[in-house]
Amino acid sequence: MTSEPVSPRARLCGHLTVAAIACCVVAWSAVPASAIEPTSAINASEVAALVSDAAPDLIEPAPAVETGNSFEAGGLGTDTSIPVSPDDPIDVSTTVGGRELSASITLPEGLDLSRADATDDGTVVYTSDNDASVAVQALETGDTRVHTVIPDRHATHEAEFGMDGFRAVVDTTGNAAFVQDGREGVAVPVDAPWATDASGAPVSTHYEVRGDRLVQIVSPTDATIYPIVADPTWGWRNATWGLTLTRSETANIKDYAGASSFCAALAKDKRLVLACGLWSGYLQVQAATANNLRPKGCLHIVVAPLPGAISHTYC
């Protein structure tokens, strides 16, 4: 009799045990006791296998080539430098709306991560012996995906990310982005968060903003089987240039007349005038939403590549 091939997820799950049934901790809060956890730390290849199995799409990472202190990778006009040291940021260079953009993503702190190791598929992995590991992929699409692999109930269930010169925002529907500091700048969208456990079942997760940083929080249940893979993805190919309004400007366009008048006053950037004029009604709704937030929010009006607005609470 021949045996069926065993997937990487199944091989790793074979190391799991139900011996440690206890009260679990999620971001320092309680998790149901029946969650299952592994008996030993996992290595870089196992982390990469988990990530490959868990990803909700078939997008492959670009090859990562070590060049001393970093791994270099590129995809669709985006160059990504992933550091060997977990203390250094991920550096990304790309073009948005015809302008060059350089940005840095900081890895989650406090995980006691080891120096990076690149696996055969291009995933760059930072393992941890006693907490969550991190895996970074520069995707062939040009986007940047940062996975957190949570090994057991005692590990941290939060991952906090920052971008130097940017502030994290989350709108009223839960969509997230990093908006560049200053009056004019770029907004980099962050894809909706996802998390999945060792059985392939989805795990509840969401974003929060703390200061200028974006935090992904994972909330397992009593049916969750560890390890959990969680992920935010930076959508550089969908990044947009625009203008951040002040609170008073946002308040002034919460009715249609105010929005139309504001658009007419934007003569500096013809693209902005066009985008604002076409979207006056939409801006009115977004401004009213921002004005009703507590604390009150501001709008970032997008001009390239597509017109629109991001409502946020940090301004």
Short description:
With 315 residues, the chain is α+β, with helices and mostly antiparallel strands.
Beta-strand percentage range: 35-45%
Radius of gyration: 21 Å
Kindly state the percentage of residues in helix.
Answer: 10-25%
Instruction: State the total count of DSSP E strands.
Output: 25
Shape: globular
CA(first)-CA(last) distance: 66 Å
Give the structural class. alpha+beta
Strand order of the largest sheet: 5-6-7-8-9-14-20-19
Q: Biggest β-sheet: count, sense, barrel? A: 8 strands, antiparallel
Kindly report the average pLDDT value. Answer: 81
Tell me the number of helical segments per DSSP (H or I, 4 or more residues long): 6
Low-confidence stretches: 1-6, 10-34
Structural features:
315 residues; alpha+beta; eight-stranded antiparallel beta sheet; seven-stranded antiparallel beta sheet; globular; disordered N terminus
Can you give a write-up of this model?
The chain is of the alpha+beta class and 315 residues long. Helix content is 17%, strand content 38%. The chain has six helices and 25 strands. It has helices spanning 8-13, 44-54, 247-252, 256-264, 270-278, 280-292, and strands at residues 16-17, 24-26, 29-31, 37-38, 65-66, 70-75, 78-83, 90-96, 99-106, 117-118, 124-126, 133-138, 144-150, 158-163, 166-170, 176-180, 184-190, 194-196, 204-210, 213-219, 228-231, 233-234, 240-244, 298-304, 308-312. It has an eight-stranded antiparallel β-sheet, with no helix packed on it. Strands 10, 11, 12, 13, 18, 21 and 22 form a seven-stranded antiparallel β-sheet that branches. A hairpin with a 6-residue loop joins β11 and β12 (133-138). α4 packs across α6 (280-292). It is globular. It starts with 7 loop residues before the first helix and ends with a strand.
